Amino acid sequence: MGIVDKLNRLMLSQDSAKGKCYRDEMERYKAAARSYSLVEGTVAVLSDMHANVSYIYYGGFAQALGLAGADTEELIGSIWEERILGLIPQEDLYDKYLQELRFFNFVKRMPKGRRSHYFLVSKLRMKSSSGDYLWVCHRMAYVPDPFNNTLWLTLCLYGPLTFDWPGGGRAVDTYTGTVTELGLQGKSKVLSDRETQVLRLIDKGLMSKQIADTLSISVYTVSRHRQEILAKLQVKNSIEACRVAKDLGLL
């Protein structure tokens, strides 16, 4: 799936702080992830975006999904928990990736000191051990790198959905309880309306001067929009930006 490649570039391209010791901090968050699996019974996945590895802790809910016995652990060489993701139908999986992209951009816009305050909550379906689909509550949080301005760890929690809601992704501020809706399914707000206009014209082959004339803005403003688009979609050039935007349904 194309969006996975884009999220891979987005997450794994961040620079880690060379020569710093992460061991104590990593053990702290591994213990926290394991605690979620033990106390809540969730399947907890702690992914290290610098090392491209994941630590998976299987709580009691893992048995309903046919994944593993309760209170078992696994280390995999990827930030993508493929065995778990394989239980999610494609349409729900696509929306999960889109919500994560929105949440990544939402968190990156926050001051560094507030980035760990938020978690993403959404609902999706997962195939049970009996072959039926269960509604699942998916929660996700980012852990900032303690030594620089990047995001370091991702914590994903999969548990039974114990309350109903209309869906879509919501960012919850754990300090205030404030809920921010990140967009309903099928309608992305990753790019602003103006950025989408600019990208559509880029996709048609227009150069910056032509785009500026068409939209009655300056070439400088077009260049700024171009840079914002590349940053938000985590791509290196306009050709990739158009391709990613189409994959996400933005164009």
Helix content: 25-40%
Look at the structure and give the mean pLDDT.
86
Largest sheet: 8 strands, antiparallel
Number of strands: 8
Task: List the strand order in the largest sheet.
Answer: 3-2-1-6-5-4-7-8
- Please give the CATH class of the largest domain: Alpha Beta
Uncertain residue ranges = 184-188
Shape: globular
The tally of domains stands at 2
Tell me the fraction of residues in β-strands, as a range. 15-25%
Along the chain, the helix and strand elements come as: HHEEHEHHEEEEEHHHH
**CA-CA gap between termini:** 17 Å
So how many helices?
9
Radius of gyration: 19 Å
CATH topology of the largest domain: Beta-Lactamase
Gross CATH architecture of the largest domain: 2-Layer Sandwich
The chain-level structural class is: alpha+beta
CATH H-level homologous superfamily name of the largest domain: PAS domain
Q: Can you walk through the features of this model?
A:
30% of the residues are buried. This protein is α+β, with helices and mostly antiparallel strands. It has 2 domains: 180 residues, PAS domain (Beta-Lactamase), CATH 3.30.450.20; 55 residues, Arc Repressor Mutant, subunit A (Orthogonal Bundle), CATH 1.10.10.10. Helix 8 packs across helix 9. It contains 9 helices and 8 strands. It starts with a helix and ends with a helix. Strand 4 and strand 5 form a beta hairpin. It is globular, with a radius of gyration of 19 Å. An 8-stranded antiparallel beta sheet has the order 3-2-1-6-5-4-7-8, sandwiched between helices.
